[in-house]
Amino acid sequence: MNSLRFSYFMRVLKFRGKKIDSNEWVYGSLVNNLWCYAKAHKWAGINVCEIITSGECSDYEEMQLEEFNITVDPKTVGQFPGLKDKNGKDIYEGDILNHPNSGNFEVKFEDYGFYLFYNGFKQIGHVTEYMEVIGNIHENPELLNT
What we know:
By secondary structure, the protein is an all-beta fold. About 5% of the residues lie in helices and about 35% in strands. The chain is built from one helix and twelve strands. Strand 2 (about 15-20) and strand 3 (about 25-30) form a beta hairpin. The protein is globular.
């Protein structure tokens, strides 16, 4: 069993978010919108952030490369807690996991850790070898009602 609550320092930090212009998911390192000012492009004035898709960024110049910086909607950004579902698929914040006997759970970050939520209530539990990602709250919110 994998515990969904664990130390912040024991995992790889990676994120996903939906592109502003195409609604497609991108994966990589998150650029905080405190210094990301939307580069005065057509989304200026809208709260945006960027995901760097080149893997690990080692310096500021690499972060500025246009082809690696993807503008995403911050409401869709979710962090990878370092766990995989029964099929080996990465689990991200905002994913909906199904357990065949217990129903559907949402993965959320709260109180300095990742938890499973069932019907809006925090569940103290584990991601088990029976759980699988069946969708996410951005594309399939109706799955939480089942």
